[in-house]
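Before the break, one more example. Copy the sequence into your notebook; we will annotate it together after we see the structure.
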Amino acid sequence: MRKALSRVLPRMMIGDWIFWAVIVLLGINLIWLGVLEEHAPLWVGWIIGGVLAFIILRYAPRVGEEGGEEE
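Here is what the structure looks like once it is written out:
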């Protein structure tokens, strides 16, 4: 999964990825609150946002990592 994400996402430091994970978590919840709350409770949005934030923090490419890129 990390190799697939490194093709799409830029290499950033861990602080940048923490920022984006929080933004994704809050963004998913705001979209959920505005659009989907009538159909499913808000805690479902928190779970989905938390899973996406975990994926971002766990598998996002970091600066200084070998990405297996061919030169």
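Residues 2-59 form one domain. The chain has a mean pLDDT of 85. Try to locate both features in your own notes.
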